[in-house]
Amino acid sequence: MSESFLVGDPQPLSFADTHPAWCAAHGRRANRLAVGASVVGPSHIRRYRARDDAFGLMAAGEHMVVAVADGVGGEKYSRIGAAHCVNVFCRDLLARMAAPHIPIAGVDDFDPATLRRDLAALGVPRVVPTLLRGGEMTGPAPNWDSGASYHWYWNPYRRSFPTDLYEDDDPPPPPPALSDAVVESLKAVRESFFAQASTLRRKPREFACTFLTVAVNLTTGHAVAAQLGDGAILSLQDLMPACPSPPQNGEDNPFTMADQNWLEGLRIAEPTATGFLLMTDGAQDFFPEMGASCREVLTGPGDDARRALGLLEWLQGLVKPNCEDDRTLVAIMPD
Fold first, then answer.
1. What phi and psi values does residue 80 have, to the nearest 5 degrees?
2. Which residues does residue 278 pair with via DSSP β-bridges, in sequence order?
3. 5-98+174-334, superfamily in CATH?
4. Residues pairing with 10 in the sheet
5. Where are the domains of the chain?
6. Largest separation between any pair of C-alpha atoms in the chain
7. How many CA atoms lie within 13 A of 249 on its CB side?
8. pTM of the full structure
9. How far apart are CA 333 and CA 88, in angstroms?
10. Which residues does 103 contact at the CB level (< 8 Å), separation at least 6?
11. Per-residue CA distances from 203 to 18, 72, 193, 315 (Å)
12. 3-state DSSP assignment of residue 276
């Protein structure tokens, strides 16, 4: 298995608006690949409005989760609420499903006599990388992109966590059912959503957003899909709905995280499909007509980065009368 990842729209800062105009990301773990892209809509550009959509892709342990949020148009800070919700949900869900890493005395200790030999056998570097002018790296991590963030984590004592050993000889409780964890994480997201609004001293409605997610057990293939508000979750294979469409809340208004009766608009399903497309209503306007073209981009030649950027270019190139909203599309599919 590859390392865990969390990619997509960044967690918003409480003191600065850093929401990008477009975002593309990808992540791979075990037998699943997640690819996503989001672009600001032409109508937003004409009206000098920021992109209100956000998405996140995350994997850890035996699970992968993707989430998409669509900030309600006209609300001043809906893009902040959307980015906040996808980040909090992905982290919270996987925290519920993954085993905790708790050091145990006598188990995680190291033998000083063999420590240097053991670490050398694991390939732990003893040379600190240096940053040269122009953004080039020397040492263990050469040729880093000069436009990226620079980090070097040196954890010489890190080893696999012995999950079969416990302080009191009693194993921890098993993780909850994936569907139950999704619901509980959504409740946690909503609490965090209101706390964020309170911290910024704004009304929660100003951060309102809809929400879609799919979580997959990488070992069993079991998937859970959840949707609050508009947009769509489709099967990648036949473009049929993988989750029931939620009802409207009032006069043709979608349910959002800011609504007191939000649970009435939440729909959860456990589809049998192996691949999924999650999209905001701005991208949904082009389906199912553009479904085959979308699959070609996602399954075409090239590496994962090329697929993510290809999806971004594909979304930007879509043209249809009266379809000028933000467009976000995320795919989670077998590799």
1. -70, -40
2. 233, 330
3. PPM-type phosphatase domain (3.60.40.10)
4. none
5. 5-98+174-334
6. 72
7. 18
8. 0.83
9. 23
10. none
11. 20, 14, 11, 32
12. strand
